Amino acid sequence: MALLFIAKDPNTNGTQCPTAWVDDEAQEIVVQGWKAGDALLTQCLESGSIPDSEAVVKLPIRMVPAIREACDVADRLGVR
Question: Which domain of life is it from (predicted)?
């Protein structure tokens, strides 16, 4: 796996914080975020079930530039 680091949440201490990567072999954007609490998870489930192999995570809006960069990197790598 070629995991390319994109960015960490700029408003944290740099450890244990939301992070974005691009995996060019698996052709995926990978994110680390905060676990959804029960109230948010309940709201998400109104749209449909969430398989055991998936999770709901939260990212702060300030991570939008990192997610955009991850998308741009994936695009440049030809990830589809």
Answer: Bacteria
